[in-house]
Write a structure and sequence with these properties.
Blueprint lengths: L1 H14 L38 H23 L17 H18 L7 H17 L28 H11 L13
Helix pairs in contact: 2-3, 3-4
């Protein structure tokens, strides 16, 4: 009878509406999220490397360079050819830095245990193949650089000229209306 009464009290307690506020958890001491422990600190939001400045940019570029030079190129670099150029000074090619940084961020995400057993396969299929094909394309950003390991070369190709809209804005700023050359009448 006593056991039956105790079970009835437990059922009543479990069926009652919870009291407002966090209830103490037997797991709180272990810091387990969702079990009454403190929530883990959120990782910092990744930012594209070209949005960083100063020391923050330099630190990120150093870490990226370590990954590219010590892991990516030795494992996936294959040989340098006219069909797959490379540049030993790739850090000076902003577009290549942006591509490689995005590839590195994706690598970090997909090697995490939370990505599951197929995480790295997804990284290879969806990120690595496409990024390296774009970076090392015969007409890509490194096409004017090294195409033979025996002849190291580095050359930044010029980008497109500014748009007509940018040209109009720059002209308007340097030549305000009503101010012509000396000796010319103002309009």
């Amino acid at each position: 009878m006593e056991q039956s009464a105790q079970q009835a009290r437990q059922l009543d307690h479990l069926a009652s509406t919870p009291t407002p506020g966090p209830a103490p958890s037997p797991f709180a001491a272990f810091g387990m999220p969702g079990l009454g422990g403190p929530a883990p600190a959120a990782p910092p939001e990744p930012r594209p490397i070209l949005e960083l400045e100063g020391e923050e940019y330099e630190d990120e570029l150093d870490a990226l360079s370590d990954w590219v030079d010590d892991f990516l190129m030795p494992v996936y670099g294959a040989e340098v050819t006219t069909a797959a150029p490379w540049c030993l000074q790739w850090q000076e090619h902003d577009d290549v830095v942006a591509w490689l940084h995005a590839l590195w961020l994706a690598y970090q995400q997909h090697k995490d245990p939370e990505a599951g057993l197929s995480g790295l396969f997804v990284w290879h299929r969806d990120f690595l193949t496409h990024a390296l094909a774009a970076i090392r394309a015969p007409g890509g950003p490194l096409s004017a650089c090294m195409t033979s390991p025996d002849r190291p070369a580095h050359r930044l190709l010029p980008g497109p000229p500014p748009s007509a809209r940018t040209e109009k804005t720059n002209t308007a700023v340097t030549d305000p209306p009503g101010l012509g050359e000396p000796g010319e009448p103002a309009s």
